[in-house]
Specification:
two-stranded parallel ribbon; 415 residues; alpha+beta
């Protein structure tokens, strides 16, 4: 999970397999050969986590398939309109029930969820320490050289294939399925499936759900991408991670748009990540000032989290930042051509905002910059053929033409 909102969809990298076990005679041969390759006394649950670490994941755990209490709040969250325009979160099954409210509705055969996590933190300053009025902020997760969906899925497939091999080597006795058919079913998701990954991450022991709604691990912090494998195999579950947020409310206090309406509760309509990525057309004017110079996503609630104070950096080269994406120049983003947008952001999650959204966000960021040097760019954008960009530019011009009081220390920190 790279965050709470702004990059989920029903479509995306996914793998699904069904493995038919061999006949009884072949099973005997496999058991004999498997004894030479595997220590049959070691539970598959342990071996699969070892494989996850070997594939490059820092964390791995197993959760049972249950209707956890956290999932009971999801329908209320949807009914309150807190999902904004993200209609894919409202997907329902044939019975009219929200798919994400219960894994049983989309995968009745699933018995366990393998949750893997990988660190994507890089050694660049946090957004709360940057204050250059001519530059914007792109969320840390989106800097990567390779789209995280692909990078995580590649590792998940290693784990999934190893699981299939182990089940095949151990024979039918290792398998528990939803019916009489002796088959192993698996399905992989990287931020694209109809389930709430962070809930299963909690019950897999990967981390707890923080008050900012992100998964937190006491050793790695919250800069984590999650990948899950649903399986029909009954695996030994891990213990859920205890909540270590305590009385801290720094994430809630630091949010400039008050998107964290209560501990563990997010209103996407107010979230900068949602506004800059998922929101189409014009952004409500009352939300614009709080966006500061964010042009794609937001890291503030993670930047101020004490558990990220000493967060380690990633060992995965594909998560290193692409050139120009850390504190990008606002005028470059505002005037980026369609061809350059396609070229620069090929294989990047930034494409989700589309060129219109990125240029709109840059115009708003210019308006929030307080820098009169950006007025010529905004004047040009105010006459742009794209009405969404032109309207945002006119708003930006109004902000720069209106004298504003000096920014307070807290405003500088959150801008």
């Amino acid at each position: 999970m790279a965050g709470r909102t702004g990059r989920r969809g029903e479509q995306g990298p996914r793998c699904q397999h069904e493995v038919r076990l061999p006949t009884r005679g072949a099973n005997r041969h496999l058991r004999e050969s498997g004894a030479r390759q595997l220590n049959q006394s070691i539970p598959i649950s342990v071996l699969i986590k070892q494989t996850a670490y070997q594939a490059g994941f820092e964390l791995a755990g197993i959760a049972p398939v249950r209707d956890f209490s956290e999932l009971n709040h999801f329908p209320d969250w949807i009914d309150a309109g807190h999902a904004g325009e993200m209609k894919y979160l409202e997907a329902r099954d044939a019975a009219g029930q929200l798919k994400r409210a219960s894994l049983r509705s989309i995968a009745p055969w699933a018995r366990s969820v393998i949750v893997c996590a990988i660190n994507y933190n890089t050694p660049h300053p946090y957004s709360t320490r940057i204050n250059d009025p001519e530059r914007g902020w792109i969320s840390r997760y989106a800097w990567s050289r390779e789209d995280y969906h692909e990078a995580v899925m590649r590792r998940l497939r290693v784990v999934e294939n190893r699981l299939r091999d182990m089940v095949g080597a151990r024979g039918q006795d290792a398998l528990v399925t939803a019916g009489e058919t002796p088959a192993l079913q698996t399905r992989c998701y990287v931020d694209t499936g109809p389930l709430v990954e962070r809930v299963y991450a909690k019950y897999a022991g990967v981390g707890w759900i923080g008050k900012n709604t992100c998964i937190l691990n006491q050793k790695l912090g919250s800069w984590l991408f999650l990948g899950v494998i649903l399986t029909s195999l009954e695996l030994d579950p891990d213990l859920p991670a205890p909540d270590r947020c305590g009385t801290c409310t720094r994430c809630i206090d630091a949010c400039p748009t008050d998107a964290l309406i209560a501990p563990y509760q997010l209103d996407s309509n107010k979230c900068i990540a949602y506004l800059t990525i998922e929101k189409r057309d014009a952004i409500p004017e009352e939300m614009r000032a709080g966006m500061g110079r964010h042009v794609f996503g937001c890291d503030i609630c993670q930047d101020v989290c004490p558990w990220n104070r000493k967060a380690p950096t990633t060992a995965a080269d594909e998560f290193e930042a692409r050139e120009g994406l850390v504190n990008p120049a606002l005028n470059w983003l505002a005037e980026i051509s369609a061809e350059e947008f396609r070229e620069k952001f090929r294989g990047s999650p930034i494409r989700r905002a589309k060129r219109t959204g990125l240029r709109r966000n840059a115009a708003i960021a210019m308006g929030n910059s307080g820098d009169p040097h950006l007025i010529p760019v905004l004047e040009k954008l105010a006459a742009d053929d794209d009405p969404v960009v032109a309207e945002a530019a006119r708003w930006g011009l109004e902000q720069l033409s209106t004298p504003s009081p000096p920014m307070s220390e807290s405003s500088v920190r959150n801008s």
